[in-house]
Amino acid sequence: RNPDSLLANNNIGVTLLRKGQLDEAIAYFQKALQNHPDDPETRNNLGIALAKAHGDYANTLAQMGRDDEAIVEFRKALEFFPDFAAARHSLAVILFQKGQVDEAIAQFREILEKSPNDEVAAFDLGNAYFVTGQMDEAAAFYQRALKIKPDYVSAINNLGMAFLKKGMVDEAAAQFREALALQPDFELARANLEKALLKKAHP
């Protein structure tokens, strides 16, 4: 067994990567690349390991409230592995929370291009359009989330809110009732239903 062989080092790195031992995995991928710097599979594996390391660090920073540093680390993770959906979603959420809504929208859209059935990204994109006052787009993405997951009560409620903003009071009330049928203790949907009924009684 040749410890310097590309295959051996790459395979050990893959095993360590699966176990979440990122530092050790990175070391083995780097060792494999010393003698075979152009091997695409090992370089891709190294990219994934580095991306996950940056992603883990970014998540830790975000939990500590160090959002600006977290954004930097999530961007680094995506440089190494652009298809790292979890990192892209976390980046988009932080950007949204910091009021950088246009960039958040771009990130959510990219997630949906690669993962069209990601109902959470569709819902979050709907929320981003909602806060910018783009109710047609917001409603469209809430509906997209519901096509993927019909019992997504938050999306049902928010679709009702978008309808209410558009002056579609009956449609809004129907959404709030549906949300409450699925989750009777959903107080926000109950409050929204009362608001819709009040608006209908006093247009």
Written description of the protein model:
This protein has 203 residues and is mainly α. The chain has helices at residues 6-19, 22-35, 40-63, 67-80, 85-97, 101-114, 119-131, 135-148, 153-165, 169-182, 187-201. It is elongated. The N and C termini lie far apart (80 Å). The model has no long low-confidence stretch (mean pLDDT 90).
**Shape type:** elongated
Q: Beta-strand level of the residues, as a percent range?
A: under 5%
Radius of gyration: 22 Å
pLDDT below 50 for ≥5 consecutive residues: which ranges?
none
- The helix/strand order is HHHHHHHHHHH
Largest beta-sheet characterization = none
Mean pLDDT: 90
- Discrete helix count: 11
Number of E-state strands: 0
Terminus-to-terminus distance: 80 Å
Amount of helix:
over 70%
Class inferred from helices and paired strands:
mainly alpha
Please provide a brief summary of the model:
The chain has 203 residues and is mostly helical.
List the helices and strands and how they pair.
Blueprint: H1 6-19, H2 22-35, H3 40-63, H4 67-80, H5 85-97, H6 101-114, H7 119-131, H8 135-148, H9 153-165, H10 169-182, H11 187-201
Helix pairs in contact: 1-2, 1-3, 2-3, 3-4, 3-5, 4-5, 5-6, 6-7, 7-8, 7-9, 8-9, 9-10, 9-11, 10-11
